[in-house]
Write a structure and sequence with these properties.
Blueprint lengths: L1 H18 L2 H10 L13 H33 L4 H16 L12 H11 L1 H18 L2 H15 L7 H17 L1 H16 L1
Helix pairs in contact: 1-3, 1-4, 2-3, 3-4, 3-5, 4-5, 4-8, 5-6, 5-8, 6-7, 7-8
Length: 198
């Protein structure tokens, strides 16, 4: 029972960390507006950059990466198991995408997932970054390259033999990120269908 309570405590804390939305708070503080009502409507680093320039983008990016990393690092520092660490990585991403205090309308989860995953499994994250760079050099489209990189890395991950837990956590995080980007996914799918019809 005590071990289960310990696990739930860290999972809830990871969700709370993830739900702390740097883009929302920064733009609200500096400009007095809800970032979700301007630009793309996304409460993330890219939209913060549209509102506040490169400085806003970098501040939010660093904040989102850090909270993802911290959600997993706290488990490691406390002696928690890898299973708890994996659940906390997922919880942090969930918190960012569906923050309770912002009525479940948060960001898209890219930066926070990278932060959480690089601590949980740096090998998987480095593979993800390498795949992204290769795709981006070909497509020159940031969002599409990022989403494709998550999917392709999930397919390649078994080759690294990192274990079932790492693969499962990575796949769940990928599904969450894709779900948060559902409009981009639909647009990319429509684009591919149109190209095939020509």
């Amino acid at each position: 029972m005590e071990g289960e309570m310990f696990a739930w405590w860290w999972i809830v804390l990871a969700y709370i960390l993830g739900s702390l939305n740097g883009a929302y708070y920064l733009v609200k503080w500096k400009q007095g507006i809800d970032i979700r009502t301007t630009g793309s409507g996304n409460a993330g680093a890219t939209n913060a950059g549209r509102s506040m320039g490169k400085k806003g983008f970098l501040l939010v990016l660093i904040f989102d990466l850090a909270k993802g990393m911290l959600a997993v690092l706290l488990v490691h520092w406390s002696g928690g198991t890898e299973v708890i660490a994996g659940l906390c990585a997922v919880a942090a991403v969930l918190g960012h995408i569906f923050p309770i205090q912002l009525r479940f309308r948060g960001g898209k989860g890219i930066a926070v997932s990278l932060g959480a995953l690089v601590i949980f499994s740096y090998q998987a994250t480095f593979l993800l970054i390498a795949v992204f760079l290769c795709i981006y050099l070909f497509l020159r489209r940031f969002s599409a390259s990022g989403l494709l990189a998550y999917v392709i890395t999930a397919a390649l991950l078994p080759l690294l033999r990192l274990g079932v837990l790492t693969f499962a956590v990575y796949v769940v995080v990928t599904v969450l990120v894709l779900a948060a980007h559902h409009t981009h996914v639909r647009a990319a799918w429509s684009y591919l269908l149109l190209r095939n019809e020509r």
